[in-house]
Structures are given as C-alpha cells and as structure tokens.
Amino acid sequence: MSRKKAKQKSHSTKHSRGSHALKGVLEITRSGIGYVVIGDGKDDVLVRPNNFNNAMNGDEVLVKVVKENVSTARREGRVVEVKTRKQTEFIGTLQVSANFAFFIPDSDKPMPDFFVPLEKLKGAKDKDRVIVRLVRWDKEDKKPVGEVVKQMSQEDANDAAMQEILAEAGFPLSFPDEVMEEAERLPEVLSAAEIRKRKDVREILTFTIDPVDAKDFDDAISIRPLNNGNYEIGVHIADVSYYVEPNTQLDDEAYKRATSVYLPDRVNPMLPERISNELCSLRPKEDKFTFSAIFQMTPKGEVKQFWLGKTVIHSNHRFTYEDVQEIIESGSGLYAEEVLLLNNIAQRLRKKRFSKGAINFSSQEVRFKLDEKGKPIGIVVKESKEAHQLIEEFMLLANKTVAESVSKIKVNKKDVPFAYRVHDVPDEEKLTPFVEFARKYGHKFDISSPESIARSFNKMLEDVKGRPEQHVLEQLGIRTMAKAVYTSENIGHYGLAFEHYCHFTSPIRRYPDILVHRVLESILNNAPVIDKKIEEKCKHCSERERAAMEAERASNKYKQVEFMSEYLGHTFEGVISGVAGFGFWVETVEHKCEGLVSVTGLSDYDEFRLIESDYSLVGRRSGRKFKMGDKVWIKVVAANLTKRQLDYEWVIDGEKENDEEQQQPKQRKKRKK
C-alpha cells in the first residue's frame, strides 16, 4: 500500500504488535528525548527517556517500534537491547559519603549518575575529578556501576580537555588489566623455530624513515642491487598479526578501538605500548618479524616481479624525514646512494600515478609547538616534501600489490572476503556548483567521465599554484570528493586511480591492516579464510576512523582557541575559508587558526545575504562581497575553550591596527605593566 493510500485509510495512530527490532544508534538531545537513527530511509525512531532501557547517547541499540503515526510517518519505540556501547569511560566528579559513592559525569546530554563501590575508588576522595569506567549496567541495577580509573589533576585543564575529547568520541582512555597482562606475556625473544619458517633478509641494508617524534616504526625499506642491473626493494611491515591473534583480549580491544588517535600532545594507541613501541616497532639494530612485499624493479621504477610473505629483518638505521630530505637536497650523507636511488624511483612512480589519473591535492599539516604542560606557544605549517613522498609511493605500491593479488583468488568461483580501501567518484551535486565556481577563475572542467574529471582537477591544481585562489579552490575541490572507506565491495580508489587498493602498511595503528594481513597469510598458506563478517568489520573500522578524525579536529580546534586566547583584541590578516547565512569563517594567514565572523557583527555596515553558487555573502545596499578565498583583516574578540570556538570581528581596511607591540600576546603586555 502506498503512503498516500495509507493516509487516506487512516489518520489515527496505530500500534505495531509483534514487529521485529531495528538496529540503529541512539542520539539523545539536550532536552532528554532520544532518536534512534536507523538508516532505513524512513524517519528516525523517537524514544522517550523512560524507554532507553539502560542505553546511553551514541550506543548501538535494538529498538522496537511501539507506535506509528501514519499521517506523519512518525515512529515511536523503546530500546530492547544495547548492542555496543559507544563510550565506556567518562570524566566527572565524585560524591563520596561514609557508605557509598556516586560519580556525576560531565556531559551536555542528560546522563545518569554512576554508583561506585567504595573498594573501587582507588584512593579518590569526595569532589575529586576522576575518570570512571563503566563496569556494568544490568537490568537489576538502578544505576550504572563504575570504577575509578584515574584521578585528574585540578591544575591540568589541558589534559582533562584532551581526555574528554577522546572519551566523547568513544575511545577508551586506558587498557583493561587483562589486556595489559596478555601483552606482558608475549615473548620478547624471537622464536628460532619461527625464524626458520620465514625469508631471512637480515643481511640486506634496511632502514626506517619516520617523523622525529615517532616511537612506533611500522614500516621499513630494504634495497640491494641485482646482477642484471635491477634492484630488489623490500617494503617490510611490522608483523602485528603474529602477536595479536584472533579471539584474544588484545584482539578484541584492538578491534574495538580500530585505530590509534593522534592529538597535538599525545597518541591514544590502538595497541598497548608493549606491542606498538617495543615488540612490533622496527627499531634500529634489532631483529624483528615482518610481513613483506619485495619487488624486483628497474632503475626506471618498472616492477618486473614481486614476492609477498613473512620475513625477519634487521634495521640498520633510523632516519627522520628531515634527515632524508637533507640527503636528497645535498646529495650526500649516510646511505646517500641508496636514498637517492629510492627517491628517484619514488618520483617516477609518483609521476606515473598522476599520469594515470590520480588527483594531486597538495597537503599541508599544521603542528603546534607545545610547552611542557601541553600549552601551544607556536604553530608550524609542514608541507609534504620528497622524503615524505619516498615513503608514500612505496607504501602505495605495497598496498596496491597486495589488493591486486588477493582480488585474483577465488574460492568456489567467488571472491575471498577482504577489507578493500575504496574511494568513489565525486558527487555530482557537489561537483556542479564547484565547476561553475572554478570557471569564474578561468578553469574549465570536462565532466564527461570520471577520468576526464580527474584530468581537469589536475590541470586546475597545476594552474593555481602560487595564485591567490589556490587555497580556496583546493579546499572546495576536496569537499566535492567522496570519503574513502573500508568495504568488501571493491569499486576501486578514484583519488589514487587504482583499480585495487587496501591498507597493508600500518597494522600498529590501523585494525583493517591486521584484517588484511590475516587474509593474505591464509591465501599464502593455500587455506583462504572466508570471513562472513568482514563487511560488518569494515563498517565498524570506517566509523571509528571518522570518530578519530573528528577527535583530532576537535583537539586541534581546542589548541587553536587556547593559542588565540592570548591575542584577544589583536588584529590579523586572514583568508575567508567558508561562508554561511549566519556569517563567514576566516583562517589567519600567520597561524592557520579559524574563527567565525557573525553577520550580526556586520549589521552596522549592511544587511548581508548568502549567494550559495558564488560561496559568498553580499550586502543588499552596498554590494559589498565576502567570498571564499578573499583576504580580510579581523580582530580576535572571543575565545571559548568550552565550546572550542573563536569569534572574530571584521576590520575595515585602513582601520586595522599595525602597532607591532599590539601583535604580542597578553602575557608579554602583563609583564610590561
């Protein structure tokens, strides 16, 4: 029956009897009403607080529809089961009395207090700020039961803020005791019997290239010349799956987290440091177990043949990216001949990749300089250089080769279930206005096919280098792109122009790489694993990846607000980075800190309206235009750490203050007083 006919038949509210439960995510509003987001194309299911059944905000639940209003298509239900908790650790305050203790979580959403048994306080006292882990919340429990994990320092607001961001994103702040115990029991000495099963490449020159502050080295490169004039180049990846076996506490915890999270002042790791920084980290002068892709390549970067399998390596040296970049630029240094050769091949691979349709978006990374307490005292913009590209190209080659190899394997004429990394073609709805906007800057797009779109993007990106509109066109171009995800449905990777692609090279910090290692090993052993839950695991990993990215963005925003709070009242040059009906965002040129200029602050000048197709706000009387990419001057008027929000005020050219002293932070001015 169509919805129209259903409306004609009855405008009353009907009760659903015996309907099956639907799976979705519970989102609780500040008012306390909940909605279970189902994703079935219909409206969300409304759930009232007395029907949450011990579920909390963000939990994956089963909900049973108990009422359905046909005229409004509004469904109302009750939670019948909590499938997965989004968050198990919370930050808040203790209330301790003689016989019992309660924990009040910090949250802008309604949440129950926790009961904490006195023996689980771990020394914490009344009114202490603590992290509490949810131990259980059974039907017979009136309140959730928790235990204190850690006492928070009252002085360290930064630490509390970072931990809160992680907890809200659903990432545990510590490892359970049983996981740590399992990690401690793993053998430190490599098994002689296991070494005999592997290809021994310890005598071949091998080194790692990583950021200066890295501790988890999960990839290494080896190189040696062959008699035929070609080279054997090995990409060696930490063999995490040797240590982290299925159906163990370690594996369950790694899957739950699915990724390490990188915040400005810390890493929240997927695996305990015993594994990530010690057993699996490819540290110099140590023998390590690895999973390798070893290529025979010509000096021009053509792959003549390859081998995939388990190895044991010995890293001769640990390079930083800065070390390698200096060798590339100077032509001299330790292992310079090998580094320069690898760089030459990497640049050829890179050129070939772009010629085949990969899209060449430039990448900038903003890093904060922090003091000993994690407070930002400066901002550094890092760009991708040839040293980074050297590692990137060989990792891409290994990832692509593994995915291609697995895609060819059939079991009963069917593909082996596998965690591919895919990237869809651009969304037409997002692409069309962007193409119109780019045309205003003289850039023409051929949108007749995905390949021609990629060529048009690369032509535009090449043409705008160094021009004022470069940043805005790059940013808007990235926004037209689909998000890369993990899935067993291989549709290829559009941005890289690869038909087959997966993540194989970072198993210390990404769970999908562990899944890939296990499937590849089973194929190499001629006993392919048929994991019927692979798609469910892929979706979970994609969701956790998004949560990690949001946590990273939130922490960077917190640091930006913390940094700019020292410059209240100061004026800076910026670039308009986004527009909306209620104002426009500006990113400062000097510090890359983004804040909002509200239209209410512009009301003295004119009444502004949004022109979506032009990404601009235009004054009705004056015709004054604020467009993405325009340079403007702003004054910092508010920095709200709680909301992680910066407010700017537009400063008319000529009214800007140019006093050098005014550009110094507040602290310096205080000392002068």
Q: How many distinct helices?
A: 16
Strand content: 25-35%
Classify the secondary structure makeup into a structural class: alpha+beta
Distance linking N and C termini: 78 Å
Largest sheet: 7 strands, mixed
Radius of gyration: 28 Å
Average pLDDT: 90
Q: Work out the number of β strands.
A: 34
User: What is the global morphology?
Assistant: globular
- Fraction of residues in helix: 25-40%
The main sheet orders its strands as: 12-19-18-15-14-13-20
Work out the count of structural domains: 4
Quaternary organization? single chain
Low-confidence stretches: 1-18, 658-663, 666-673
Polypeptide structure, described:
- The protein is an alpha+beta fold and 673 residues long.
- The protein folds into four domains: 82 residues, Nucleic acid-binding proteins (OB fold (Dihydrolipoamide Acetyltransferase, E2P), Beta Barrel), CATH 2.40.50.140; 61 residues, OB fold (Dihydrolipoamide Acetyltransferase, E2P) (Beta Barrel), CATH 2.40.50; 289 residues, no CATH class; 105 residues, Nucleic acid-binding proteins (OB fold (Dihydrolipoamide Acetyltransferase, E2P), Beta Barrel).
- The protein is 29% helix and 29% strand.
- The protein is built from 16 helices and 34 strands.
- Strands 12-19-18-15-14-13-20 form a seven-stranded mixed sheet. A five-stranded mixed barrel has the order 2-3-4-6-5.
- Strand 2 and strand 3 form a beta hairpin.
- Helix 9 crosses helix 10 and helix 11 packs antiparallel against helix 13.
